[in-house]
Amino acid sequence: METTIKDTSFPKPPQLILDVVHCIKLVRNCLGKYRVLKNSKGKPIEFAYFEKLHDIQQNEGLHLATKINSQHIDYQSQVMKTKFAVQLLSRSVSKALDYLRLDLKHPDFLESEATSEFCLIFNDLFDVLNSRSIFSKFLKAPMQGKNRLIWEGVFSKAKAYIMGLTDSHGTPIIRSRRKIGFLGLLFDIESFKMMYFNYVENGPLKYILPYKCSQDHIEGVFGELRASRGNDNNLTTQQFSAAYRRLFMSTTIDLRNGNVVLQDDTKVPNFLDLPRRPKLTSIRKILDLEEDPFIESLVENLQIQNTEYTRDVL
Description:
Elements: H1 20-34, E1 36-38, E2 44-46, H2 48-60, H3 70-73, H4 82-88, H5 91-103, H6 113-129, H7 148-164, E3 166-167, H8 180-201, H9 216-227, H10 237-249, H11 292-302, H12 308-313
Antiparallel strand pairs: 1-2, 1-3
Helix pairs in contact: 1-4, 1-8, 5-6, 6-7, 7-8
């Protein structure tokens, strides 16, 4: 797979990189549209397991340490919100499916192994490709020599896994109509490997933070420009000029409510950096849930069923 842009004006050839979080969103959209995919062993990967997990959490009144709610299941109304896709294809969801299949042996999740693996593969790949701090550990650590075996192992496993995915009719997913998200991740894998070779192994850098190649920041600016005219996607020249001037001359850009959420302290340049309101820090009461009598009283007060599921969660 060729990811290098042929341009002799650069000292080292630039690499083609597709925005990682948007690729994850397209992967989620593909599974949501097709409903069923198959891995290289022919085992089904079903979106229905996410719906069943959500139903169980709603009925029991407790979550299995996941962030899944109705917005993650009925994502079509907010299809551009990337955080819902990342939270759906996450390690916590994979562990929740494993718990229901292996520990509770829930009859609705006996064939959920392939779906759990699907979540875990894309979670690990996203963690490596979304590394943003030199102080992060494990999969979120920067790409450098001392953890090369880790991120290369994630890349190799994810690449082989994606190449083996098919739709329900047996068509390779990278040749289907919804192939862009999967191809984008394959491109990113090869591009960052080449960037490491060019700029770390044979260059001046000590590490690479893939998040610095994200388009979150510029997309946040575009979102603020649209919001300045009531979420208008068709600004006139005068409207754009006025919104741009107001955005960069008079206020600090707030990127917390857009389709993407910034994950570092990168600031968009402006001429007047106004201080933000301090955030209110909530005080969380730490409860000791080890005593059985307390759990029983908590279950009674919360008006939830005293089942094995609720006792394990508590």
